[in-house]
Amino acid sequence: MDFRSSDTVPGPRAEDHLPHTTQAAVKIVIVGGFGVGKTTMVGSVSEIRPLTTEETMTQAGIGVDDNYGSDTKTATTVAMDFGRIGITEQLVLYLFGTPGQERFWFLWNGLFEGALGAVVLLDTRRLEVSFDVIGRLEERGVPFVVAVNSFPDAPRYPVEELRGALDLPREIPIMECDARRRASSREVLMTLMRFLHSLARTHAPA
């Protein structure tokens, strides 16, 4: 077979290569209901071109998917989002965004495998969709933090009121964020890493 130069498939971009200083890589999942901003968060914070599996929404989803508060959303994740961010020169986080529609939740089992921790992304306009998400993390024993995505028309509640509504213990961090902003999304991930570090210290043998 004659492979001409114009027919070759380009390799990965230079910025996609893992830094040579990397000593550890950690898998993190970003979970939440439909339309809460998981794809946006992965895209805003990833240092590499993010991998997305978005498909155009069709009439078939009407009556099946709850898109309240996301009426202008035209695409949805059907498998996962993937990105990568270096926290230090030695530590890299691999980010996996889960599909939000309940009919795709069967994919979560594979995405949770090997995950060190998770970010639960919330939309306060649809707080109830987070109950099952948090329940699944608790069942699997995956440590998590909660990030409230700041939608312009979403109601705002005191942290302790949200904690009570979600029935979360005091040690689980809850913070506001703007998933569109890299700095805000990065701070959520840093909060998760600090939380995981505190858990490791608490459970370390004396």
UniProtKB/TrEMBL annotation:
Record flagged with keyword Metal-binding: no
Annotated keywords: GTP-binding, Hydrolase, Nucleotide-binding
Tree of life domain: Bacteria
Keyword field contains GTP-binding: yes
Cited Gene3D superfamilies: P-loop containing nucleotide triphosphate hydrolases
Similarity comment text for this entry: Belongs to the GPN-loop GTPase family.
Protein name: ATP/GTP-binding protein
Organism: Streptomyces gibsoniae
